[in-house]
Amino acid sequence: MTREEFDEMLHARLQDEAGIEHPHVSYAVDMDDLDKPAVTGRVQFIEWHEGFWGDGEDYVSEVVRNPTWFQVTVFADAMIKTTGDTHHIFLEGITKDVRPSKDEKEQQHLRFGKSTYRNRRADIKRGVLHYGFVMGS
Fold first, then answer.
1. Which residues pair with 44 in a beta bridge?
2. Which strand (E) or helix (H) includes residue 94?
3. Which residue has the higher pLDDT, 130 or 80?
4. DSSP characters for 49-77?
5. Tens of pLDDT along 87-108?
6. Burial category of 80 from C-beta neighbours within 10 Å (exposed 0-12, middle 13-18, buried 19 and up)
7. What string of DSSP letters covers 17-51?
8. What is the CA radius of gyration of the chain?
9. Torsion angle, alpha carbons of 75, 78, 84, 86, to 10
10. What is the mean pLDDT of the chain?
11. pTM of the model
12. Where are the domains of the chain?
């Protein structure tokens, strides 16, 4: 399957299976991995809004268990729409190093580089793994 055929198939699946009419995300991970688990365990995906890239708000996914790369792609599309960052649309992977928010960056600086990550929002769940997206432009 060519990359173009894969992209058409993925967008059709996003529309049919996830109800996403106009997908923004482009999948840049191995095409053979789409239905394989991206990570195991109970996880939640987080991406903080950065006003430079567009109007939006912080993105926090629901908690899921053993999400596939297809599910991560659905979350990445929702993240793009929520944060307003339509510049970084290529899903290249995920990371356990969730990028800190602007407030947390300032707090980390004030505390000499020590992490001050805390439960900032009610929808960020404790006891689950938190992942961020690796997005490219």
1. 130
2. strand 90-95
3. 80
4. --GGG-S---EEPPPEES-BHHHHHHHHH
5. 888 898 888 865 555 554 444 3
6. buried
7. HH--SS---EE-S-GGGTTSBSS-SEEEEEE---G
8. 16
9. 70
10. 79
11. 0.79
12. 3-136
Supply angle C-alpha 71, 75, 80, rounded to 5. 145
Contact (Cβ atoms closer than 8 angstroms) between residue 96 and residue 130: yes
Tokens standing for 131?
């992942």
Of the listed ranges 9-13, 31-35, 122-126, the least confidently predicted one is: 122-126
Percent of the chain with pLDDT over 90: 31
- pLDDT score for 1: 84
pLDDT at 116 over 60: no
* Owner of token pair 């000499």: 112
Name the residue type at position 48: W
Residue found by looking up tokens 């995906």 in the block: 45
Q: How many CA atoms lie within 13 A of 3 on its CB side?
A: 5
* Those residues with Cβ within 8 angstroms of residue 105's Cβ, 6 or more apart along the chain or in another chain: none
Nearest CA-CA partner of 50 in 114, 103, 121, 117: 103
State the CB neighbour count (10 A cutoff) for residue 68: 16
Residue 88, SS3 per DSSP: coil
Lowest-confidence region among 111-115, 127-131, 132-136: 111-115
